[in-house]
């Protein structure tokens, strides 16, 4: 596995990442870490956030880096039965080259593990079926803030997810040409060893079904960028070839083969 990509990186502009996440600082750190392809992917939850993405593109255009740099966007469902704030027109108007997306809430007020998993799975399939979304992000990541606020017990292991659901997701992802993310910060870093083992086993089932994967640090602070090495290592351990590592379509905004530093 030689595809050293990080296609899930946040910036300071949307407020979810801290002030260290300047575009030029991120690019410099990624180059130091050996990242060959960078994707900036800040959140888009409401139309009001769209103008906040404009300076990201402006900063990317000023970069001088050997890494290929793309502008993406991370889409969140606007409600339990609602879609994304995204369209072909928005993509064109704001220069987005790709979209990653997924479910970021449980959409339950009282904890029922089977119901939570069913809702997650249903939304995962909806992501795959959306022709404007390239990558399903961090399956079975849950917000610690939401769980704490609602007094929910911790989600202890992805082993709670029935294997038939995992295989169904893989089959739909393969049919719709949707990549599934190996997300370092959300699913693999600062977790108990047993949790990580179970999650890698979950990814192994997806790999067995022929899924294409995307790799991302999901960094919100400059020190979090190094977490992408964990995603790379998991992909290597699973024997995923470079041909099954997703890459944004088209030419990068800056960088890539032959680019000067």
What does this protein look like?
The chain is 36% helix and 15% strand. It has 261 residues and is α/β, with parallel strands linked by helices. It has one domain: TIM Barrel (Alpha-Beta Barrel), CATH 3.20.20. Strand 2, helix 2 and strand 3 form a beta-alpha-beta unit.
Any key phrases for this structure?
globular; single chain; TIM Barrel; alpha/beta; seven-stranded parallel beta sheet
Topology:
Layout: E1 5-9, H1 23-33, E2 37-44, H2 54-61, E3 68-76, H3 88-94, E4 98-102, H4 113-129, E5 135-136, H5 144-150, H6 163-176, E6 179-183, H7 184-187, H8 193-208, E7 213-216, H9 228-237
Helix pairs in contact: 4-6, 6-8
Give the strand order, joined by hyphens, for the main sheet.
Answer: 1-2-3-4-5-6-7
Q: What is the structural class?
A: alpha/beta
Gyration radius from CA atoms, angstroms: 17 Å
The number of distinct β-strands equals 7
Strand content: 5-15%
Distance between the termini: 25 Å
What is CATH's topology name? Answer: TIM Barrel
Residue windows where pLDDT falls under 50 for at least 5 positions = none
The CATH architecture comes to Alpha-Beta Barrel
The CATH homologous superfamily is termed Metal-dependent hydrolases
Q: What is the H-and-E element order? A: EHEHEHEHEHHEHHEH
